[in-house]
């Protein structure tokens, strides 16, 4: 079958369209005919080699962390879906490969596609949706009346997280450019900080949660807007010791993560807030709950651009600009 292959790690390395063996589903696997694949900064970072120490991938490999498509075969122990079902998923680490005509996904990692979305729209959801869910619901346990700052509100995670935070009853602030202010307000943002002309750390205070997806400087400034007992959760690093333990990394790598995150953890403790790193995980049950919210009209996808599959390197290049509003998707059909 056809797939885009990463032959070696490298900054902005081009993927090669070539042939790879057909995937064979195991007892817990679902074989999916991919109709659309979402693209994410995570794909770029894996391609660039940024996660070599902590993710078990060795080139040549097929990237792609989210997809939508049709079930064409199931393993003997699969009970949640059947052949012919339209599904979407974020495959678990170690089983990625959505930039291909077909992929095997664990039964536990996928959900039925929202009935009111196209395949391209559905493919834009799993990674960012699960990331936002795991930050806001699973870890921060946001309650009505709490205040949440979501950085980069016009990005993939931001556009989803704003909508979810509003659904949970939070007051939502976000950072965005002036040109994207109307868009993020339409998604539910109560306060929009123009990062080019305003300093969010001087405009905001008393927040319960900051969701950071930006650089180290933004991460540190975010401490200033949190109230004592607040949470600073970063999806862009630095990874903390808890992440190293959860990933089962060896002692040397765990020590490296402890040292990398020591500065921000120390400053967070001094400020009386909690810092943690989140690397989202696949979860079909959570994705099913997200499906319900989408079908009820609570959350809608925000798709910046849809590329044909053969232009996947161009799609990655668009991701690399950092200017996508919402998500970028490649379609195979």
TrEMBL record:
Entry superkingdom: Bacteria
Domain Enoyl reductase (ER): 10-330
Keyword line: Oxidoreductase
SMART domains: PKS_ER
Matching Pfam families: ADH_N, ADH_zinc_N_2
Xref: PANTHER family: ALCOHOL DEHYDROGENASE RELATED (PTHR11695), RETICULON-4-INTERACTING PROTEIN 1, MITOCHONDRIAL (PTHR11695:SF294)
Protein name: NADP-dependent oxidoreductase
Species this chain originates from: Sphingobium soli
Lineage of source species: Bacteria, Pseudomonadati, Pseudomonadota, Alphaproteobacteria, Sphingomonadales
